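Dig into my protein:

:::
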Amino acid sequence: MAIPGLGLVAETVRRFAPANEADTFDMEYWSLEQAKLGKGSEKPLVRQVVLVTGGAGAIGAATARAFAAQGAAVVVLDLDPVADVATAEAIAAGGGAGALGIGCDLTDPSAVRQAFAAACIQFGGLDIVVSNAGAAWTGAIADLPDTDLRASFELNLFAHQTVAQAAVAVFRAQGFGGQLLFNVSKQALPRPRLRRLQERSGARSVSEEVYMAGNLLGREVRASDVADAFVALAKLERSTGAVLTVDGGKVAGMVS
């Protein structure tokens, strides 16, 4: 097919010349390059907003970072108003979609509602809530002070209920739901009855490090492993009521 004017253009340089090797390479591989660039996709959780309670602790911070790495904006709630802001700032500095740290006493329902409202004002809503905060009070039940027992229930039971209510209220108001994930200790299950790490390792005459790696995989379970489990559950959009155990394979304590 003749292209009008092409001859005149060629005459301006006074000669016809074939494309050189570099030009040929560019022409032949441009479509492949475009195809490769076209395969680039958004991160799985981009435009998702995730709130993590106990977000300045080891597991909480690892969870917030894991969600941020998947493209989500994160809200870090923690009793320590300095640590939660520092955690959020570190995540934001890593180039995430945004992070907000809010100091919050989870045993105070009013404070929880205010924190959720602040998160929604900042990011426009919530998609995923990870109720992670918890603590352990140890000691013989016969000698355990009443204040310690009540404090344990306030944080490890009632606070999760408060967080769940606040989350569901937001999900309902949004009209498209959301995901609610809980971090649960095996001690909360009917079996097994676990003792403190020091007692468990001492009973077997091994170091705490050796005990921590004493599972089917022969590896210590890290905070980041728990965080990865939360992310995996968040991606299961058609699953509900699921329990995912992260312990490396403790046979005696497997959930049945």
